[in-house]
Amino acid sequence: MEAVNTPTHLSTEHAQQDGAGVKTGDPERAHPPQSGRRAAAIAVLAAAVIIAAMVGIIYLLLQNPPLTANIRDIVIIVAALVLIVMSSISSLLLIILLYRLQALTQFLRSELVPILMDTQRAARTVYGTTVFLSKSIAQPTIKAAGFAARFQRMTQVIGRKLKTK
Predict the structure, then answer these.
(1) How do the domains of the chain map onto residue ranges?
(2) Residues sharing a CB contact under 8 Å with residue 17, sequence separation 6 or more, in sequence order
(3) Each residue of 95-136: pLDDT tens digit?
(4) Structure pTM?
(5) Of the candidates 77, 75, 95, which has an alpha carbon nearest to the alpha carbon of residue 87?
(6) Which of 25, 76, 127, 144 has the most CB atoms around its CB within 10 Å?
(7) What is 58-71 written as a DSSP string?
(8) What distance in Å separates the CA atoms of residue 128 and residue 34, rounded to the nearest whole number?
(9) Euclidean distance between the first and the last CA atom of the chain, given in angstroms as a whole number
């Protein structure tokens, strides 16, 4: 039977038991830093395999020029077909975009212009109301308050002159 090595950095406070009764630590500590190294090693190995396969294919193609010419012709035809399909799709999407832009422009004209007209009408109404209130209420009130202040000041001055005599 093999002895199980437990890391010494896991305290008993952080250790928990899973369903099988095995103690596990914090999730951050559960994955050692070696998993990153393992992933990097796998990525390097996969890149090496892909490069080796490409070198092998190129070597085989150089050994058989008629096959290479046939594959080249097939690749050119496939590339042309893909270009035609992508151009068609791009054109269709551009037409759809232009149609939607036209619909948006019509929507803005039909909805935004009336809103702006209503806003202008409301602004004119507010301006007219302000002018009316200013002329009919504010100016007479200010004149009356000024007259009352002058009268009050005049009575204060006359009262002081009478007291001084």
Answers:
(1) 34-63, 67-122, 131-165
(2) 23, 24
(3) 999 999 999 999 888 888 888 889 999 999 999 999 988 888
(4) 0.40
(5) 95
(6) 25
(7) HHHHHH-HHHHHHH
(8) 79
(9) 126
